[in-house]
């Protein structure tokens, strides 16, 4: 066999080895891509679930905000009612003082 033929056989052997290595690497790459696609698909589903849960939470928080606003309004109304009652009691206290003074004058013994 000539040197030329030996070189061609060696090149063909090297080419076959390179082809086998490339196919092996492509198979590895395809497997990795498949795994990545699966993970990405799972993550996409998780994101959808999280978004849905966040929307539900937003709705609940809106309800809580509304409830808190109502409570604040009621608290303000009660505060005003307390002020009105206090003002009324102060007025009654003044009138009671006047009545007590009149009673004291009426029950005072002449000197």
Task: Please provide a written account of the structure.
This protein is mainly alpha-helical and 111 residues long. 95% of the residues lie in helices and 0% in strands. The protein has one helix at residues 3-107. The longest helix has 105 residues, at 3-107. It is rod-shaped and about 160 Å long. The N and C termini lie far apart (160 Å).
Short description:
This protein has 111 residues and is mainly alpha-helical.
What features would you highlight for this structure?
111 residues, mainly alpha, rod-shaped, 1 helix
* Gyration radius from CA atoms, angstroms: 47 Å
Which percent range fits the helix content? over 70%
Report the structural category.
mainly alpha
Tell me the strand percentage band. Answer: under 5%
Order of helices and strands: H
Distance between the termini: 160 Å
Low-confidence stretches: none
Number of strands: 0
Q: Shape, please?
A: rod-shaped
The largest pleated sheet is described as: none
Number of helices: 1
Whole-number tally of structural domains: 1
Q: Mean pLDDT score, rounded? A: 94
């Amino acid at each position: 066999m000539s040197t030329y033929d030996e070189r061609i056989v060696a090149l063909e052997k090297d080419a076959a080895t390179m082809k086998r290595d490339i196919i092996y690497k492509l198979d590895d790459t395809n497997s990795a891509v498949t795994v990545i696609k699966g993970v990405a698909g799972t993550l996409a589903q998780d994101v959808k679930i999280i978004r849905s849960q966040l929307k539900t939470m937003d709705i609940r928080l809106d309800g809580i905000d509304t409830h808190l606003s109502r409570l604040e309004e009621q608290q303000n109304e009660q505060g005003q009612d307390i002020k009105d009652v206090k003002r009324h009691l102060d007025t009654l206290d003044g009138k009671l003082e006047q009545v007590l003074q009149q009673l004291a004058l009426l029950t005072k013994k002449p000197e």
